[in-house]
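Why does residue order matter? Because the sequence determines the fold. Keep that principle in mind as you read this record.
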Amino acid sequence: MAQFAVRAGRHEFFASYREGDMHRQRHFVLIMTLASAVGMPAWGQTVTPAGESASSGSQSATAIPDFSGLWAHPSFPGFEPPASGPGPVLNKSRMRVGPQAGRSAAGQQLVGDYTNPILKPQAAQAVKTHGELEASGVGAANPRNQCWPEPLPFIFSNTGMQMLQQPHQVTFLYNEDHEVRRVRMNEPHPAQMTPSWYGDSVGHYEGDTLVIDTVGIKTGRPLAMADWFGTPYTGALHVIERYRLIDYEAAKEALERDAKENLQAAGTPLSIDPNYRGKHLQLQFTVEDEGVFTTPWSATITYRPGFNWRGAAEWPEVVCAEDAYEYYPGAALPKAGKPDF
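Structure:
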């Protein structure tokens, strides 16, 4: 038995087939190929502290925290609001019945709260327009459902992630459509940079924390949005990520915020054990963009170890299928002005 995932719109559909049912069986274990090519460091490898030259004879070496393994966050739309302070745009559309009542109705509609005080007037209008299209029953286009590269911080909403750590570089693999980010270690941003899909990312370790600074995210592209709600961004977008391993007791509060706000998705390519009590990987990120936001805001993503449909720590393939429109009960379906033939 083999399995693959097909993403159409915001939904991920699983399909399985027996060997012989199709002309060709496809297994895609991306992580094994990339890990062997890149070569991950062993626990305890050292790195030059930020701000010090690699050739400095007086530098002190710091142990690299080991973030290896598959990490899953099967929540939708994904961002965990902070315990206090300015936070991300959230979904106004909520589940009304069932065990997840009160949570984001992300599987049905994504109507951003355009009254969030972090939004400047023009950004609030963009979120409102996007939400009106969603509320009408027609799913609005976004980088995920149109198979475009996802900018930061949108990409953090992926349900699966893996880090490959090297002294000179950290590589991020995301489960949606084989997206890959590369972070240069212990280097400054270039004085002149060309904006790119994921921007220019530089990182360093602060004790047990990986800190990444990203600027230069491309704006001249279709579907330039920071989240599922159509929040725009400008060339001034600046994202700071902080990754660290935390105990379950420290993760508990963030997991509770996640469960209260986000739809807990089932049937995603990577699953978690809800009773897991070991180490969690937490991403805390801060976003600022003076062209869009009135103030910097923050959110978290709290990952647990992930596994595929067989219970193995192997990377599943997720195929992107463009689908700009989704229709809901009661929505008027479009009709052609004249017959096609």
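The chain has one domain: 30-52+62-314.
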